[in-house]
Structures are given as C-alpha cells and as structure tokens.
Fold:
Amino acid sequence: MACALLFASSAGAQSLVPAPPVVTRVIAACPGLSAADQRPCSGAPSTVYWDPAWPDPAAWQHELGHLFDYQVLTDADRAAFQRIIGMPGLWRPGTAAAGPAEYFAVAYSQCALHRSVKRASTLGYGYRTTPKRHQAVCELIRNTGSTAFQA
Structure:
C-alpha cells in the first residue's frame, strides 16, 4: 500500500539549492519496474516514488532535480544548462542513452549536496563535472530558483 506525503519548501531543507515548489513523496516502489530494478523515480510534475530501502540523500536530490526541471526550468534555462555542459540536442532523447535532462538531475543533486568540487569526475549516467562546470551549473540553478519564486 502506498502512502503519499506532500512536501513543499521543506523537501530541500538541507539543500544548497532551491527545492521544487511542490513535492509529493509516495512511499512505495517505483511503478513499472521489476523488484530487481527498483530505485527511486519521479513522475512529472511533482511526484517522487521512494522506497524506504533507499536512504541515499544523493538519490533523493536527483529526483528533486527532475521535479525542479518539470516545475521551474524554462526552455531558455535548459538551453543555458546545455551550453554549460556542451551537450546540444533533445532535452529528453527518448532512448536508452542519458540526455541532458538526466545530466541535469545529476548536476542538481551535486549542487544540492556540495558547495564545490575539487577535481573533475564522472558521476551517474556518465555526467562529467569539473570545478568550473559545477560552479556554473549551481549558479544557474540558484538564479533560476530565486527568480522563479519571486514571481
């Protein structure tokens, strides 16, 4: 049985970046995935399916990154992110390959949990970050979030 909990600004209470305005956390397995493939997942525009077996803060922030994308980012914001990471093309390519939307969620998670990074590294979905890229992406997220919530 699933349990839905509505979060708002408290969703990112320990985050270094703004949280999506509306977050509904459903305490249940991710629908459509087999037991072997279970992981947290999000559903547009405001739902995160969260199995309590996943206590990982990075995974939680990653899913919040998807919701921030759905609720806050504009096409211009997405284009700015793609310029920063050097990845043009479709935001959600609809293939097995990770696209900019997945990279954004990884980057959002990193910005939520780390003020800076000391060296280049490859993270989930093959997203490559550097200290300079991390700062630019985090600034984009903070600026986008603060502008969106002032409206």
Q: What stands out?
A: Residues 131-150 form the longest helix (20 residues). The chain has one domain: 3-150.
